[in-house]
Amino acid sequence: MIYRNKTEAYWELLLTIARDELGIESFDAAGDTGADMRMCRVEDIGRALERAYDMGLMVGHTVTRAGCAEESRV
After folding, report:
1. DSSP class of residue 3?
2. Helix crossing, 42-73 with 10-22: angle to 10°?
3. Which of 20, 24, 67, 73 lies 20 to 30 Å from 51, alpha-carbon distance?
4. What DSSP assignment string belongs to 9-72?
5. CA distance 27 to 16
6. Could you read off the pLDDT of 19-30 as tens digits, one per residue?
7. Going by C-beta distance under 8 Å and a sequence separation of 6 or more, which residues neighbour residue 56?
8. How many CB atoms lie within 10 A of CB 48?
9. What is d(CA 50, CA 29) in angstroms, rounded to the nearest whole number?
């Protein structure tokens, strides 16, 4: 799978979560070796998704608070 948004701010965070929770070092395809396929425990996938969701909530909260602070200064 080819991802086009590797420069997005969230990309490094998602790779960090994948590395920590699933042992995935890169999202780049390994080629024809089949090395880009791996078995993951459902529990590990759930933990990775939960962590990504939590980070999304934290970022959303931070952005919302920053927007409210900006509006109150105007």
Report:
1. -
2. 150
3. 67
4. THHHHHHHHHHHHH----SS---TTSTT-----HHHHHHHHHHHHHHHHHHHHHHHHHHHHHHH
5. 11
6. 999 998 888 776
7. none
8. 19
9. 24
Distance CA 59, CA 17 (A): 15
pLDDT band of residue 48 (cuts 50, 70, 90) is very high
Give the chain's mean pLDDT: 82
Cβ neighbours of residue 24 closer than 8 Å, sequence gap 6 or more: 15, 18, 38
Q: Are 51 and 17 in contact (CB under 8 A)?
A: yes
Q: Is pTM, for the whole model, over 0.90?
A: no
Distance from the first to the final alpha carbon of the chain:
45
Please report, as a single letter, which amino acid is at residue 69.
A
